[in-house]
User: What shape does this take?
Amino acid sequence: MLTQTDKLTALAPMQDVTDLAFMRVLARIGSLPDVFVTAYFRSTPTTCAMAENNLRCIEENETGVPVLAQLAGAEAAPLVRDAEQLLQLPVAGINLNAGCPAPLVNRHGAGAGLLRDLPALQSAVQGLRAVVPAGQFSVKFRTGWESEEELPAILDTIGAAAPDAAMIHGRTRKALYKPDTVSVEAVRLAVQTLACPVMGNGDIATLEQARYWLNHISPAGVMIGRGAVRNPYIFRQIKGGAAPTADEMKHYYRVLVEETDRILHTKRTPAGHCNRMKKYLAYCYADFTPEQEYALRRCTDIDSMLRILCG
Ligand SMILES: Cc1cc2nc3c(=O)[nH]c(=O)nc-3n(C[C@H](O)[C@H](O)[C@H](O)COP(=O)(O)O)c2cc1C
Assistant: This one.
């Protein structure tokens, strides 16, 4: 799957956002990417936190779309141990997280922390390459820790492990998620340097942007996160389908309410359900009036929320 020759689309991993509920929503509205990636399983020398929400994305994924299990860790031995465990599950492969900018993760050398310790990055990618079957190992990384001048050495390190695919978020760790900091040139360099297919990622939010990336920046594929939460029909559009109508957007919000309800199940409370919805709506508020956004942010009852979302 990772080595398919057609252009690939992937839903970007986003903890508690691009989760099982959202994967099911994409299936129900008929706008699926080619691959899902779980949010990271945190791998440490003592344990791998088998986060229930991430496990459900694997074990209850009935969408037909392959899912990669993502690991974030700083040391090869625990990463290898946990990759071997995750490979027992119905996953299409293992994805190493070398991009997470969270201080708590970076402090221990994991996520983007690997980018400022190339020997650790080397041992992580080489270790995983040795145990993950052919066609199933990928790395998601940023353009550098401080500066994209670090990128050539990062690409050498990753390339030497011969991953089957790579996803590059075109920002440094220092840039966090700041607007206008995605470097198209850095993504192009990764595409030109690595022998494997490279998917571009970062602020792709419209069909026009996705097409531009596929035609001029990252021809192997694009990975979309926040843009897909705001417009989940983007995967359908990239494959030649129509832009969503206003009714389809209302259908999306209704289905999202239903699927979050299904996920929460016995843990559901009216306020808890609204809070869960707000994790997705954080990326949708720009499509509402300031008054609607204000009301949505304060909602504690799902019927009122639905009335605002769907009129
Ligand atoms: C709330 C949130 C959670 C995220 N969690 C992860 C994660 O678990 N693993 C990962 O590799 N990237 C994670 N990311 C980064 C996204 O996968 C993606 O690289 C980033 O949002 C840029 O892409 P976008 O502009 O299409 O959203 C997260 C981003 C956000 C906003």
In short: The chain has two domains: 8-238, 246-310. Residues 12-15, 17, 39-40, 70, 97, 99-100, 140, 169, 201-204, 224-227 surround flavin mononucleotide (CB under 6 Å).
